[in-house]
Amino acid sequence: MAALCSEDVHAGSLRPIVLAMLVATGACISTPAEGDRSPTPSPAAAAVTLGVVPPLLAPDGRLRVVTTPTNWLQGEDSATGAVLWTLAGGVPAASGSARWRVLFSADGTSLYAQSLSDERGLTYLGTRRIEPRTGVELANDLKFEVYWYENVVLWTALRADGKLQMAVQRPVDAGGGYWLRTLDPRTLKTLDDGRQPGPPPIPGR
């Protein structure tokens, strides 16, 4: 299993193994406890929050989320710099252009970590809900949607009501077009997926 977390995937037919590798990556990081009893993230009284490239401070200022030289995501104690957890990226074949987009729930109880890349056919590597202080994965949106890993996520935001929303451009082979996808902030299950006439505008802009 370690080889899946460290070795490069060479050019070839990647599609048949992409989802298997995404699942295998989970073996390299903390896994959710049985029966997730974490609180549902509170919408609080906050404006729309957009996902950003790290570094990012938690709302209480105690945790800083950064990327490592190997492009893994890392949680650090902002006062001491002590590493609290490290989260592996997605498929190694996308590591050359891989990047993260992160955002905290308004109450700071959840961190949403989204793995993206510019590699052809591997532009979206999933979104995970993380327990900020431990790095334990509480939920993810990994699924078997046709051409799921070829989605281009234009932006991700937490709405004022606490729900997670993504603007998605679907690949031509999957029908193309722009979609506004709303997810449950706790489970990351899709609540609504509506086709749009063009790229959905970034909230607040």
Give a short synopsis of this structure.
The chain is mostly beta strands. Helix content is 8%, strand content 33%. The protein has a five-stranded antiparallel beta sheet with strand order 1-10-11-12-13, with no helix packed on it.
Please provide a written account of the structure.
- It is a single chain.
- The longest helix is centred in the first third of the chain and has 11 residues, at 15-25.
- This protein is mostly beta strands and 205 residues long.
- Strand 11 (164-169) and strand 12 form a beta hairpin.
- It has two helices and 13 strands, in the order ααβββββββββββββ.
- The radius of gyration is 16 Å and the shape is globular.
- Mean pLDDT is 82; it is low at 1-34.
- The strands form three sheets. The protein has a five-stranded antiparallel sheet, with no helix packed on it.
Average the pLDDT over all residues and give the rounded result: 82
Largest sheet: 5 strands, antiparallel
CATH secondary-structure class: Mainly Beta
Number of helices: 2
Q: What CATH architecture label applies?
A: Beta Barrel
Q: How is the CATH topology named? A: Lipocalin
Number of strands: 13
Cα gyration radius (Å): 16 Å
> How many independent structural domains?
1
Cα distance spanning the termini: 44 Å
What is the overall silhouette?
Answer: globular
- Which structural class should the secondary elements be placed in? mainly beta
Q: H/E element string? A: HHEEEEEEEEEEEEE
Could you tell me the strand content as a percent range? 25-35%
Q: What ranges have pLDDT less than 50 throughout 5 or more consecutive residues?
A: 1-34
- What proportion of the residues is helical, as a percent range? under 10%
Q: In which order are the strands of the major sheet placed?
A: 1-10-11-12-13
